[in-house]
Amino acid sequence: MTTDKSGHVSVDAMLDDLRTLVETESPSRDLAALSASAKVVAGVIESRLGGHAVLVESEAGPHVHWSGGGEPGVLILGHHDTVFPLGTLERRPFTVENGHASGPGVFDMLGGLVQAVHGLAALDDRSGVEILVTADEEVGSRSSRALIEERALACGAVLVFEGAADGGALKTGRKGCGTFQVSIAGRASHAGLEPEAGVNALVEAAHQVLAIAALGRPEAGTTVTPTVASAGTLDNVVPAEATIVVDVRVETAEETERIESAFAALTPHLDEAEISVRGGIGRPPMPQSASQQLFEVARRLVPGIEGRAVGGGSDGNFTAALGVPTLDGLGAIGGGAHADHEYLVVDAMTGRANLVTALVRAVLTPR
H or E element: which one contains 363? Predict the structure, then answer.
């Protein structure tokens, strides 16, 4: 059971489950760790909700799928992979002090998973509810996207348990996002004896960085940010190769098309330099219109709760792009995602779990 003797959701029980999840490290792409994590996630779901959680194997690790039976009506969506490498837990163990729970993944997004499960446990009838917890959200959801989209279309409504926006606001819109890698091929030569015989990939990269950064349109919500660059081998060799990695965020499909076309059209400034481009905008924008229906339900349940559009992407981008009503940011209240100071606010866990109970009940009632 997830309730205390008074019938309220038990914070202690939620913290116990959160500790269990956090102490099973689950870095993206570590298949052994993700396999262990998926089994633990499935065990938590089964112990609180009953039934059988299915492990869906993939090249990125197991996804966890659970159904309460009946006609699908709402999809609870999350992920169990985290950005932290194995060994982080030893340096930064799970702790609860001064009203905060901390540890790798507590806010993004293990706390949200726990709150969702305990909120669902308070429902007398869970028919129509599905849970999908994927293994590769932090690295692009390539192996899980088709499954996410399939279950979203089947259920017709999606609640995403990523961490809340600042102040506990729900996430009613998200930018589309993606990564591009620009590779430059030049020609090596001796930097002292005959630099003119080379084609300097680093100089070409400098031209490209400026051209790429100029693609941003802040007034349209588009950011184009070169984030990683590498070039050269030795201090007396003209660099033959260089790479530039670029983070892109867009608010509209039109901007997606413009940016992808611009990267495809990049041309060299130096004679004989060659440019190749990989990547793209893998997550489409999540327009605020996709969340309007569900956000209005949430606002009736919790008067005064705020909604906010944010720059980061989630698996909710995929479901919203299908036209499936999607509400995000229902997870933990806290902060520090992907950072050492990551935390969630313990006192807010009960309220968020109760919101899950009421919101799922409201979504399923009209069926």
Answer: helix 349-364
* Token reading at 73: 């009506």
Please state, in angstroms and rounded to a whole number, the distance separating the CA atoms of residues 133 and 209: 37
- Whole-model pTM? 0.91
Residue with tokens 């999809």: 75
Q: Which helix (H) or strand (E) holds 216?
A: none
Contacts of 252 by beta carbon, 8 Å cutoff, 6+ apart: 220, 221, 285
Amino acid at 174: R
pLDDT per residue as tens digits for the range 3-44: 443 447 899 999 999 999 999 999 999 999 999 999 999 999
Radius of gyration, CA atoms only, the chain: 23
| 205 dihedral zone (left: phi>0; alpha: psi -120 to 50; beta) | alpha
Q: What is the pLDDT of residues 184-231, one digit of tens each?
A: 999 999 999 999 999 999 999 999 999 999 999 999 999 999 999 999
Residue 220 to residues 201, 217, 265, Cα–Cα distance (Å): 32, 5, 21
All residue ranges of the chain with pLDDT < 50 are 1-7
Q: Is the dihedral of CA 66, 296, 123, 80 positive or negative?
A: positive
Using the CB atoms, write b or e for 18-52: b if 16+ within 10 Å. bbbbbebbbbbebeebbebbbebbbbbbeebbeee
- CA–CA separation, 315 and 79 (whole Å): 9
Give every CB contact of residue 230 below 8 A, 6+ residues apart in sequence. Answer: 242, 243
Residue 366 confidence (pLDDT)? 67
What DSSP assignment string belongs to 273-336?
Answer: -EEEEEEEEEE--B-GGGTHHHHHHHHHHSTT--EEEES---THHHHHHTT--EEB--S-SEE-
- pLDDT for 5 equals 39
Q: Is 57 helix (H, G, I), strand (E, B) or coil?
A: coil
How many Cβ atoms from other residues are within 10 Å of residue 367's Cβ?
A: 11
